[in-house]
Structure formats: structure tokens, C-alpha cells
Design a protein that fits this description.
Elements (H helix, E strand, L loop, with lengths): L21 H11 L28 E4 L2 E4 L6 H16 L18 H10 L9 E6 L1 H7 L12 H22 L6 E6 L16 H17 L3 E6 L6 H4 L5 E4 L5 H4 L3 H9 L3 E7 L4 H6 L2 H16 L5 H6 L1 E5 L8 H22 L1
Parallel strand pairs: 3-4, 4-5, 5-6, 6-7, 7-8
Antiparallel strand pairs: 1-2
């Protein structure tokens, strides 16, 4: 845990917006979450899709007619895989600078990252922290298939490469954003964890997931960053709460009752000084977002926070270990509703901070 960062009920954003203009997106983020700005992902551009955005550098990657997969039957695959691991080892051993390697984000696929980085240099006052994000290893490795349409999670060799790719891309983000001289938070977005335990993933164990988690988390911690995991649905929260994660981001609007099925693990997690990112502003159902107000959401948050308080925490201390966020990204919403979501996030955060801090 980074002693230089205290959440204090501040607002931050998940990342995706239903916009086509990156300048408009970063302005919106800086206006409403200036204390913890993040870079914007605009899925209107196919190269900024949740999985595809982070595939650059993966051996065997084929992109055909808008689809992408790993072709292990290619004549060049074995050589590509060998070169990948040689590049990885070279970076780990310091023979190649990470910033000069295949493990970076590029302006072609992550324009929002570079726009945030540029704006950070121009801010009149420093933010409290800076947030980056990347697709988590479980979602990434179950979201990419090989030429036989089998998820690469089931191929230990390719999974190893994919996890190392994500670890290095996350580490690179920390290196770059640390130039702001502020604490850096990296969220691993894991919507795929909602499928854990389902018929589609019966052969995947929590240990398999935990091993992937710890490798990518270690890469962020190595650079002094804070690790968050964002799951916008229900999951087996034990695999997250028992990991080395610093921030657990969950849909507190819809799935709080499911989250509270793990009271002992939540208590242990918070006792260790870790942070909850409360996704209290709904984004999955447009009708819910349309009717909600900041006052109603603050009231709802208070009622739910009392249940955490009952585990043995003082409310003021809980606030210090809480962030306020939308329940998920807003990429699937209309632009007007996305703007409302980020506005509500700021208003709820401000009201909670006014009342308790």
C-alpha cells in the first residue's frame, strides 16, 4: 500500500466514453475528476476495444476482416514466441529500456493515454493521483482465441506470454505517469470474472486466476504504483479480496448485496488499509441512470456504507478508504447519459466528503 495516497472519498472514472473526440473526453475527465484523472478509452474506434487495444506485441496475432486471433499454426509462430520471450527477458535484465520495447502503448491504439500525459504537464496544480487502466489477465486471455476458437487461457504457453505482455504494459504506464510526481493507480478491468464458476470456465481454478493476478500486480508494485481491480458484475470476490490488490472496484449500485456475502474477507481487506472504489452511479441500465439524482445516490451509499461500518469500522475511516466511481465504463451509453454519469460521480463524492471529512 502506498502511504502517499489516501482515497478520502474522491471521485475517479473507469475509462470508456461514448465519444469520438479525445480532446473532448479528456476535458470532461479533467473537469469532473480533477483530483484523480484517468485516460479516456473511446470504443467508437475499433482499435480502442477493451481487448484489442492491448494486443500489440502479442506473438501470433492475426487481424483479419475486423476479427483478431492467435494463429499457432503459422510458420512463423514459434519464432515469434521465442522472440517475445527474448524481448521480455532483455527488459527484465535491463538490456533494453521498457520505453523502447514492444511493451508500450502507442498513439495509434491509446491516444487517450498520450493526451492525458500531455495535459498533466500543463496543469496549474497537481492532482492527488493519476489513474491508468488495462484489461485484466483473465478477461484478456478468455477474450482472445486461437485459430481453433479456443481461448488462449487454456494454452499455458500463450497465456504466459499474454500475462507478461499485460504486466509490462501496466508497468510502462506507471513509469510514464509517475513523471507527474503523483501516486499512480492502475486498474485492471476484469468484467470476465463474472463468468467464473459458470459452465464455460469450469476447468479454470481460482489458483489459475490468482497466479495471473500476482504477476501483473507485482509489475505495478515494482514501479511503486497502486493496483486496482474493477469488476462491474458479480463474481467470486474471494479471489480478488485475498490477492495483493490495493483497490477493489465494484458495482455498489446493483451488486452490493452479493459483495456483502464475503464479510470476513472484506473486513480483513479493509483492516489491511486497502481501498474500496464504490461504483454507486449506475451505468449498465440507462433507465436507472436517467432517474437517479445525486441526493438519492448519496442516501443509498450511506445505507450501504453502514453495513460495512457494522463490520467494525468508523465511518470517517471508511471514507478515507473509499473512492467514488461510476459502476462501470460509459462506452455503451449515449453521450448525454455518459456526461450525466460523470457529473453525478463528482456530485456524490463532493457531498460525501462535505458531510464526513
Amino acid at each position: 500500500m502506498n502511504a502517499g495516497f489516501q482515497a478520502n472519498g474522491l471521485a475517479t472514472f473507469i475509462g470508456s466514453l461514448p465519444l469520438t473526440n479525445h480532446e473532448q473526453a479528456i476535458e470532461l475527465i479533467l473537469q469532473h475528476t480533477p483530483e484523480i484523472p484517468c485516460w479516456a478509452q473511446l470504443p467508437a474506434y475499433k482499435e480502442e476495444g477493451m481487448v484489442l487495444q492491448f494486443t500489440h506485441g502479442l506473438p501470433g496475432l492475426c487481424i483479419e476482416a475486423g476479427n483478431f486471433f492467435i494463429d499457432t499454426d503459422s510458420d512463423t509462430f514459434d519464432d515469434e514466441l521465442l522472440q517475445f520471450f527474448e524481448d521480455y527477458i532483455a527488459v527484465v535484465e535491463g538490456k533494453i529500456e521498457l520505453d523502447a520495447s514492444r511493451f508500450i502503448l502507442t498513439k495509434d491504439t491509446a491516444r487517450g493515454f498520450f493526451m492525458l500525459w500531455e495535459r498533466l504537464q500543463l496543469l496549474s496544480g497537481p492532482p492527488v493521483a493519476v489513474k491508468g487502466q488495462i484489461t485484466g489477465p483473465f478477461t484478456f486471455c478468455t477474450g482472445i482465441a486461437d485459430q481453433k476458437k479456443q481461448a488462449i487461457f487454456y494454452n499455458p504457453q500463450i497465456r504466459d506470454a499474454a500475462v507478461k505482455l499485460l504486466a509490462m504494459k501496466a508497468r510502462w504506464q506507471v513509469q510514464q505517469l509517475s513523471q507527474s510526481k503523483r501516486p499512480v493507480i492502475i486498474f485492471f478491468d476484469e468484467p470476465g470474472l463474472a463468468g467464473v464458476g459458470s459452465s464455460g470456465f469450469t476447468s479454470i481454478s481460482n489458483d489459475d486466476i490468482s497466479q495471473c493476478f500476482e504477476e501483473v500486480f507485482d509489475s505495478v508494485h515494482l514501479e511503486g504504483g497502486l493496483v486496482g481491480v474493477h469488476v462491474c458484475a458479480n463474481t467470486d470476490w474471494s479471489v480478488v479480496l485475498e490477492s495483493s490488490v490495493d483497490i477493489v472496484s465494484f458495482d455498489a449500485y446493483t451488486y452490493f448485496d452479493r459483495f456483502m456475502l464475503y464479510p470476513d474477507k472484506i473486513k480483513n481487506y479493509l483492516d489491511a488499509g486497502n481501498i474500496l472504489a464504490w461504483g454507486i452511479v449506475p451505468t449498465l441500465n440507462p433507465e436507472e441512470l436517467e432517474r437517479e439524482t445525486s441526493a438519492a445516490l448519496v442516501s443509498q451509499w450511506k445505507e450501504k456504507a453502514k453495513q460495512i461500518e457494522a463490520l467494525g469500522f468508523e465511518m470517517q475511516n471508511l471514507i478515507k478508504q473509499s473512492l467514488i466511481t461510476p459502476s462501470c465504463g460509459t462506452g455503451s451509453l449515449s453521450a448525454d447519459l455518459a456526461i450525466k454519469a460523470i457529473q453525478l460521480t463528482r456530485e456524490v463524492s463532493q457531498e460525501i466528503r462535505t458531510q464526513y471529512l
